[in-house]
Model the fold of this input.
Amino acid sequence: MSIRHGLLALLERGPRYGSRLRTDFESRTGSTWPLNVGQVYTTLSRLERDGMVVQDGADDAGHDLYAITDAGRTELHTWFGTPVDRTHPPRDELAIKLAMAVGAPGVDIREVIQSQRRHTLKAMQDYTRLKAQALADVPSDRDEVAWLLVVEQLIFQAEAEARWLDHCESRLVRLAEAAATEPSAGPGPAATRGPARAPAERSHSQR
Done:
């Protein structure tokens, strides 16, 4: 998640101070990616260094306000218009875990898969309940619509993970069955008859 661009998107709606940005960010994403105030101010400091935001006075309560600059708007709109790069996907802990579990001594990889599947299906059920709650009342503002999009993405992601786990288990079963039916290497027919006698030995015995 690009916190940098998320904050720029919120600032495009008007100047805000750090705590308000954190609240608005979590409201827009349904607290799926919680932030702390330190992350917000560190990011704002970097954006200010890069000329994408400036300090813009203070509100009535004395909070320092930040505003987006023209350079920040250009950066934000470039981000919106650029596809998310999938050629270098982030490391996935589950994929790494299963890759390392294959052949690991003392590890039942099928149990690892089944345990993860139970967790994934429960998460999907929880997300589905959240979606149902969101749809109970027709979303009336942009934050509610944004949260609905986020929770639906989480549902699709959980569904895809569950299907992938099913595929992994099926592949392991097929490999185990293939290994069980593969003939074991043993002595050939010639070896079972004992060593052949050399020609000279045979001719001597025939005399």
